[in-house]
Amino acid sequence: xxxxxxxxxxxxxxxxxxxxxxxxxxxxxxxxxxxxxxxxxxxxxxxxxxxxxxxxxxxxxxxxxxxxxxxxxxxxxxxxxxxxxxxxxxxxxxxxxxxxxxxxxxxxxxxxxxxxxxxxxxxxxxxxxxxxxxxxxxxxxxxxxxxxxxxxxxxxx
Length: 157
What we know:
157 residues, mainly alpha, two-stranded antiparallel ribbon, 5 helices, 4 strands, 39% helix, globular
């Protein structure tokens, strides 16, 4: 801005994002392939592309599901957190996981998604069985199509 005119914000162009309201310019999405990883969650105008080294859709070992390692568990968290879940269902999902009564979630959808992702990551770091809890919560919140996507993508049958 100038002393005479406020800064005018506009949406970031395709391929760029801004995770905050600020005068900072939009940042380009990261390129997962250049890092030797795969795209787990495509970026949008509000958040960066999320990459993973988890081999999605196939096991990392012959032992079973792809969630044997930390990167795969984080990939599952990111994948669920950034699904296009209706705002009310997203709040409900968080209430189920927090074992808390209904309360008002503050902020817009992007803020609630970020808070939800941080909460799940915190659960994972506390050595919680976050995968089981998340699948249970998706079912309890009646988000069956997302539960199915998760089971298919991360080989959880």
